[in-house]
Amino acid sequence: MFILRQVGDGTTTVVLLAGEFLREAKPFIEDGVHPQNLIRSYRAASNMAIEKVKELAVSIEGKSLDEKRSLLAKCAATTLSSKLIGGEKDFFAKMVVDAVIAIGNDDRLNMIGIKKVPGGTMRDSFLVNGVAFKKTFSYAGFEQQPKKFHNPKILLLNIELELKSEKENAEIRLSDPLQYQSIVDAEWNIIYDKLDKCVKSGAKIVLSRLAIGDLATQYFADRDIFCAGRVAEDDLHRVAAATGGTVQTSVNNVIDEVLGTCDVFEEKQVGNERFNIFSGCPSGQTATIVLRGGADQFIEEAERSLHDAIMIVRRAMKNSTVVAGGGAIDMEISRYLWQHARNIAGKSQLFINAFAKALEVIPRQLCDNAGFDATDVLNKLRQKHALPSGEGSLYGVDINTGGICDSFANFVWEPALVKINAINAATEAACLVLSVDETVKNPKSESAQGDAAGMGRGRGGGMRGRGMRRR
């Protein structure tokens, strides 16, 4: 969870590394080595590995916007290459980078909206530099409202614009039957007063988080005003951030300063859904990705993949140092730790060597995932990284050919922060497990579980067989 909150990607790396650290530690534990000795060596090796990552990291700071955009797209493409939508990684990488740049320095991830529309192909997905949300529930008069505006004023509300029924058990006592009509008129006057004030504000688009009734919908339609009620709260806040408007809890004294605006508003058909799209927003602090795909499960997985890519690009912008991916940085750290361990006397040398060997699980897993011979590729990588000139330090797995290649030259990059957090989290997880001295078990519960398993074992297990004599 820490990795997801802080970085957004690298969870699989943490699981692989932590499992491999424990696998390498198991023989030592079985031979009677005290866990604290292993923990001290693992933490020392982790600190050395993190320092090596910082030393090998390359900064992308000081580049022009176009250069930085290109570099960030390569980071996003590296993240997406292992995902379900890896076949269209270049298409989505550019979209992710444009979305992250659109929100600028805003740390709120919810300023990038992802809307899922089943149907079509992945290439039908598109980015809105502004806000887009699905058409909300509406009444009959909605179809008479205009569906496109240029430079409209936008009023954002958090109030109901409909006739409300009285509370349960409400009671009104009248001394004269003629007074009943005045009470009914008062209710209508209240709602009409609210609607008049909305119209007089000059707004051509009225959005509310709460309901806008059939009376208000027809009232606005007669005056060429677009309205939408029951807008989701996060969508309403994104509209406010993008258009410069402020959500109002009253229609009294609505001034121009609280109204938002945009270049173009239109209602557009996307698949089987209709979307309200605000584009050309003045503040430009939000973006929306409309995601298309064949099945709901596919779109859900694509959304998770895009979330990882968005987090990686955000981190690369804030911490503008990258390292070579494809297992290159892991092999180089492994080589460095092997070499450093030779200068250590005592058991720590073995433990640091075990840590270094565990790091090779990343390129090995990449080979397994791509269907290549991991042993052959790892031997090539070890030979390349062992060159005394250091020219092979950037070489990683080439999943296109099944060989090795210069990962940095081929733009297979990942933010240094991701690798640092992954090594740190995996080491701490392994050390936490190693520090457990004993586990307490309840013999009664174990025996009860064993009896239950025995009762259910086999067809008719525990029951009298056919033809057996009665006792």
List the helices and strands and how they pair.
Elements: H1 2-6, H2 11-30, H3 35-56, E1 58-59, H4 65-80, H5 89-103, E2 112-118, E3 126-128, E4 130-134, E5 148-150, E6 153-157, H6 179-200, E7 205-208, H7 214-222, E8 226-228, H8 233-243, E9 260-261, E10 264-270, E11 273-279, E12 287-293, H9 296-318, E13 321-324, H10 328-341, H11 348-358, H12 361-370, H13 374-385, E14 395-398, E15 403-406, E16 413-415, H14 416-434, H15 443-455
Parallel strand pairs: 2-12, 6-7, 7-8
Antiparallel strand pairs: 1-13, 3-12, 4-11, 5-10, 6-9, 10-11, 13-16, 14-15
Helix pairs in contact: 2-11, 2-14, 3-10, 3-11, 3-14, 4-5, 4-9, 5-9, 10-11, 12-13
The gist of it:
The chain is an alpha+beta fold and 471 residues long. The protein contains 15 helices and 16 strands.
Walkthrough of the structure:
- The protein is of the alpha+beta class.
- The chain has helices at residues 2-6, 11-30, 35-56, 65-80, 89-103, 179-200, 214-222, 233-243, 296-318, 328-341, 348-358, 361-370, 374-385, 416-434, 443-455, and strands at residues 58-59, 112-118, 126-128, 130-134, 148-150, 153-157, 205-208, 226-228, 260-261, 264-270, 273-279, 287-293, 321-324, 395-398, 403-406, 413-415.
- It is built from 15 helices and 16 strands.
